[in-house]
Amino acid sequence: MPPALDSREYKFMLQAPRFAGVESELIAKMGMYWQDLSDAVAAADAITEGALTLSKQRPVTFYDTADRHLNNRDVLFRDYVFRARKRTNGSAKVILKYRHPARLVATDRDMRAAKKRLQKTETKFEKDIKPVDGRMRSLYSYSSAGRTKGDFSVRTVGDIMALFPGLKPDLDVDEKESSGSGWWLHGQRICTDRRSERPIGRS
């Protein structure tokens, strides 16, 4: 029996150049986007509430090998280093996520975190709905997260496996394979200031 869903999220990838500018310009443009989106979904009897506010800024790094061993297995590994309130010991929040269209397949994974290496661990089971090739597509997402104890550094696939040992049987790759070909993304999370009774998205 798969676990119950923790959440269902509708996700959209915005075109970043349309939101360029200083923070005040970003907020203004997001306000216009939210109004346009609210008007568009009203025809489908969807309700939106609240206003968009900038709640978090966080650098996000995704890791994979040059041959994309993780992505090819529908696995994502990333870290968040909250520089606005950075921990003095250099710790970071890390997340391992497995995604699949089939609910039973998505949860048929050992996602447990190594508690000797991670603290404040948690698992989530979510359903993501997003546009792909002109149509809405659903993916079930099973993830495990935790905060590293002390300095955080990922240089090889083995470093990721040490944090999440259940990943090892799923990857046909040398543990010494470099994961340094990951990419860095500076993320800003824009949210509504209130939850909608019928939420239609998160940016």
Q: How much strand content do the residues show?
A: 25-35%
DSSP helical segment count = 4
Percentage of residues in helical conformation: 10-25%
Numbering strands along the chain, what is their spatial order in the largest sheet? Answer: 1-5-6-4-3-2-7
User: Would you list the SSEs in sequence order as H and E?
Assistant: EHEHEEHEEHE
Q: If you average the pLDDT, what whole number results?
A: 79
Write down the overall geometry: globular
Major β-sheet, in short? 7 strands, mixed
Distance between the termini: 31 Å
How many strands? Answer: 7
Low-confidence stretches: 190-203
Structural class: alpha+beta
How many structurally independent domains?
Answer: 1
Query: Using only CA atoms, what is the Rg?
Result: 18 Å
Question: If you had to describe this structure to a student in words, what would you say it looks like?
Answer:
With 203 residues, the chain is α+β, with helices and mostly antiparallel strands. It has one domain (7-192). It has helices spanning 23-42, 69-72, 103-107, 157-163, and strands at residues 7-10, 52-63, 75-80, 93-100, 118-132, 135-148, 183-192. It has a seven-stranded mixed β-sheet. The protein is globular and about 50 Å long. It starts with 6 loop residues before the first strand and ends in an 11-residue tail after the last strand.
